[in-house]
Amino acid sequence: MPIRASSAPNVALIKYWGNRKEELRLPAADSLSMTLDRPTVEVVADHAGYFSARSFEPDGTPRTLTEKESTRLEKHFLLAKKYLTDISVAHAFPASVSLEIRSNIPRSIGLASSAAVFSALAEAYGGFATQLSRRDVSVIARLGSGSASRSVFGGFSAMIAGEGDAIGASYAKEIAPANHWKLRDIIIVPSHKEKETGSTEGHVLAHTSPLFEARLRAIPQRQKTCIEAIREKDFEKLARVSEEDCLDMHAVMASSTPALRYLSEETHRIIREIKELRAREHLAVLYTMDAGPTVHLICEESALPAVRGYASAQKDCTIFEAEIGKGSRVV
Ligand code: DP6
């Protein structure tokens, strides 16, 4: 029987950047994010004699996977199988699989689909196993894309770095469910240019930055503050710690060798204007950027009209809106 699963991206509030073991995507530090409810990715996995993967655009037209993408998907399947065998739940697991991946993420909105794709795949692979915990599903998601582990949970979730080299050493856990705090994400995409360096290649360079060690020392306290802010629904505290961490990650990126500069002039202009607007109108809004110039404006419902108004006035930008999501699931 084929298994169908669905998931969506997440936006990081404490950023994951750098691994302690690249092949297994074992992160160098904890991170934390808010799971979005859209745009979704759906996958179907079925038993097959050999591995194959087909991908479709939001409008249903087939999209040819690059060699790199196919290799990553197959490697992920093999790692998932290894992990499920290691924890002795792979009895009915397929020798190989055929995959169909339908992404509703328009290329133009600057949101990476990997977190949604690999968490949905983890869900589907988990469906072939017996008695799998949510933590195990998050480990399988992590093996395809580190941040995907966090999309397994809805609401707010943390990726725990853990210790050691075991496959299951790092996993995600829920900090608060989707209905805890109804924040919104207004996404402003200033550029449609494809990224030059993807996150997988970027993580490898983190260690070359002279700022990376200090970042690793700062994260435990930031993670703690961020969790407190979420539990207490203290927006100001959340804004302070997440903006500090975001700028710190981009400073690490920009000071690595070679330097990774994901933010554009437009990104900096939006940040400046949002800070002014927030101060002037006392708005509960914060900005954050992942590995690209796209700005996420996370806000409370009270700030929504002003933030929407600001976003819709941006020329040559694509605007996208999401709410907090429930995480990946078998459908
Ligand atoms: C900047 O999860 O995309 O978005 O494990 O190589 O797929 P891979 O990396 P990825 O890295 C995410 C980087 C980030 C920050 C974050 O989401 O925490």
Mean of pLDDT: 95
Helices and strands, in N-to-C order?
A: EEEEEEEEHEHHHEEEHHHHEEHEE
Task: Tell me the number of structural domains.
Answer: 2
Q: At CATH's second level, what is the architecture of the largest domain?
A: 2-Layer Sandwich
Main β-sheet description: 6 strands, mixed
Approximate strand percentage? 15-25%
Number of strands: 16
Cα-based radius of gyration, to the nearest Å: 19 Å
Instruction: Give, in spatial order, the strands making up the sheet with the most strands.
Output: 8-7-9-6-1-16
Determine the fraction of residues in helical runs and give it as a percent range: 25-40%
Per CATH, the class of the largest domain reads: Alpha Beta
Bound molecules: ligand DP6
Number of helices: 9
Report the uncertain regions. none
Q: In whole angstroms, how far apart are the ends? A: 13 Å
CATH topology title of the largest domain: Ribosomal Protein S5, domain 2
Describe this structure in words.
- This protein has nine helices and 16 strands.
- With 331 residues, the chain is an alpha+beta fold.
- The chain folds into two domains: 3-177, 2-Layer Sandwich (Ribosomal Protein S5, domain 2), CATH 3.30.230.10; 183-323, Alpha-Beta Plaits.
- The strands form four sheets. Strands 8-7-9-6-1-16 form a six-stranded mixed beta sheet, covered by helices on one side. Strands 2-5-10-11 form a four-stranded antiparallel beta sheet.
- β13 and β14 (295-299) form a beta hairpin.
- α2 (114-128) crosses α3 (134-144).
- The chain starts with a strand and ends with a strand.
- The mean pLDDT is 95.
- The structure holds ligand DP6.
- Ligand DP6 binds next to α2 and α5.
- This is diphosphomevalonate decarboxylase.
